[in-house]
Amino acid sequence: MATGPARRLGAFEFARVQLIACAALMALLCSLLGLWAGVTWSYWPHFVASVVIGIIPANLAMVACLRRGGPRRTELLLTAKPVIVAAMAFIWLGEVPTGTDLLGALIVMAGIILAILYGSAEGAESDRMDGPLWPVIGLGLLAASAIGFGFLVMKPAMLAGTDPLAVTAIRLMLAAFVMSVIGLWPSPVTRPAPDMTPALLGRTILPGVIGYILSSSLLLYAFAVLDAGVASALGSLSPVLILPILWWVDGKRPRLMGWIGALLAVLGTGVIVAL
């Protein structure tokens, strides 16, 4: 869904438009729900670190990876995130997942990798690669590490009582502010797109709402109540969930192994939740 607009606008402008729109929506939502009073502001360094590391460079790296490598390769590289997050959580928070949770997470990861490798039909237009492979790998791993850190660093604030929706709003507002300031720099990279249309604007904002608002908020809730590595594994299910979307967009049915991977991911999720 985001591949076309990202390639047309460029990584910076695509991210800037998404962040500003989503920040405005989340600020309005938190104001209507009265969530600002429950924010534990003493954790402001965590908010800043989450934005400076976990949103801006992470998003720019992910969009650049998406533009160069397509959605399948990007999602495959992002599957490294649960492993990275689990290592960070063990070192920083001393979290050790139970054997059942670890088994479920491993089944989920195996299913996700199968879904990514075999989920899209060969030759799909959205999966073409521009340029060599090594920058795609570097950008994908950078995005995975930064995204994982951005969520993990907010766990202490949420354990102290800050609502995950408020966390999402603050992160987005700070990121939108920083991106807007950077956008004042006179550079071709930060120049607004001259051919922005209402249709392109909508196609740019919609993936942002799904990713920044819905997905991020739900993932923050998971980080607040589960071990970070397990939460990150469950939050990596998007390659499984987008199989029908890729089928619809590209008009090519995903291969059998892709669907088997999807079933494995669902099975692993059941192991984590039920046992």
UniProtKB/TrEMBL annotation:
Q: Which SUPFAM superfamilies match?
A: Multidrug resistance efflux transporter EmrE
One of the record's GO cellular component terms = membrane
Membrane-spanning parts: 17-37, 43-64, 76-96, 102-121, 133-153, 165-185, 205-224, 230-249, 256-274
Which key words tag this protein in UniProt? Membrane, Transmembrane, Transmembrane helix
Where would I find the EamA domain in this sequence? Answer: 8-116, 137-273
Mind telling me what this protein is named? Drug/metabolite transporter (DMT)-like permease
What is the scientific name of the source organism? Rubricella aquisinus
